[in-house]
Design goal:
- By secondary structure, the protein is of the alpha/beta class.
- The chain has 14 helices and 11 strands.
- The protein has helices at 15-26, 46-53, 68-78, 97-107, 137-140, 159-164, 177-183, 198-205, 231-248, 250-254, 256-276, 280-287, 297-308, 311-326, and strands spanning 3-11, 32-40, 58-63, 83-86, 92-93, 113-122, 125-126, 145-146, 152-154, 173-176, 210-221.
- Strands 1, 2, 3, 4, 5, 6, 7, 8, 9, 10 and 11 form an 11-stranded mixed β-sheet that branches.
- Strand 2 (32-40), helix 2 (46-53) and strand 3 (58-63) form a beta-alpha-beta unit.
- Helix 7 packs across helix 8, helix 9 (231-248) packs antiparallel against helix 11 and helix 11 (256-276) runs antiparallel to helix 12 (280-287).
């Protein structure tokens, strides 16, 4: 039995990884009705690869290169089903992902946005943590409906909770077309931003109910080519998303003081990281987002150090510290 869901996969090259992603989707115990690969102007022959895959419910749409969010929107518009799911071309669903999500939705039929936990993996194997393992204990207490192993449903606006702890990434989400439209789709102006999905999930969280299956049902591939490989770049990108939302997004405008506080606190944390990595241009740029009265004394001292010593001195110290940590001596 196929269920009434279309899976949208944006692709830019990466055919070497796409096969694993498709295999995982077609191994679902509750298979999707259709899978739409959107080729975002790849140099590789994605259309030929998809055609050779030989599945009737798999099709490819080729577009000019406009970025990942534009590709996601293209796939969503082309979908023929009520339900939409998105999967990046290097991520892997576990076989029961859709089954578990629809099991929760059957218990809470008013829920139109549902996500699952995920676990990163590298060439070495699975990491020893999951996304939800970082959630503050208070996060789960906001749930109004608890269906045990099936999951939780939040009936209140969760945008501010998602702002402080973001549990969702693209490949974990299942939602209705109506919810997609209420969220405004993916912001195509942010396609080149490494945190390009942040705004979409904040938008969805502001339109409850929100369903969460607290089970690892997706494996997130970490490799040198994905944006998350550079943690500092990811941190700065999320700050830029929040700044952009203050200019146009109702959730941000309605909660402007909270968003500004988040921008400042994230900038302080990222500045600490930038200093440690001796990325001083980034360090100074982040400091500009924090008023003098809100800057911790350590940042003022570190700012002076960046003026007195060249970056290469700190880079050597950083490399030495990493070697010592790797050898277990620090």
């Amino acid at each position: 039995m196929n269920t009434d869901v279309s899976v949208v996969i944006p692709v830019y090259n990466r055919t070497s990884l796409l096969g694993d992603t498709l295999d995982a989707i077609f191994r679902q115990t509750l298979p999707p009705r259709e899978v739409i690969v959107v080729d975002d102007g790849s140099r590789e022959d994605v259309e030929g690869y998809v055609a050779a895959y030989g599945r009737e419910n798999l099709r490819c749409i080729r577009t000019e290169n406009r970025g990942v969010n534009a590709a996601r929107n293209t796939g969503a518009r082309a979908a023929r089903t009520r339900w939409l799911a998105f999967c990046d071309s290097d991520d892997l669903w576990l076989p029961q992902k859709l089954e578990r999500q629809f099991a929760l939705i059957r218990l809470a039929p008013d829920c139109e946005y549902c996500l699952v936990d995920f676990q990163p993996f590298t060439e070495r194997g699975l990491e020893d943590y999951t996304k939800f393992s970082f959630a503050p204990a208070s996060f789960w207490k906001n749930a109004q409906r608890d269906f045990g192993a099936a999951g939780l449903v939040f009936e209140s606006d969760m945008a501010l909770e998602f702002l402080c702890f973001q549990p969702a990434i693209t490949s974990t989400v299942l939602l209705t077309r109506g919810q997609f439209d209420k969220a405004g789709g993916w912001n195509e102006a942010m396609s080149s931003n490494p945190a390009q999905d942040f705004e979409f999930h904040l938008s969805c969280a502001s339109h409850p109910p929100v369903g969460i299956v607290r089970e690892v049902l997706m494996h997130y591939r970490v490799h040198a080519l994905n944006w998350s490989a550079d943690g500092l770049r990811q941190d700065v990108a999320s700050i830029e998303i929040l700044e952009s939302m203050l200019d146009h997004h109702p959730v941000a405008i309605r909660n402007a003081p909270v968003f500004r506080q988040q921008i400042q606190s994230r900038s302080i944390e990222a500045a600490d990281r930038a200093f440690y990595e001796a990325r001083f241009d980034c360090f100074r740029e982040l400091l500009r987002r924090v008023p003098w009265s809100r800057r911790p004394p350590r940042l003022a001292a570190r700012y002076l150090l960046t003026l007195l010593f060249p970056a290469r001195v700190f880079q050597r110290v950083h490399r030495l510290a990493r070697r010592l940590k790797g050898s277990g001596n620090a």
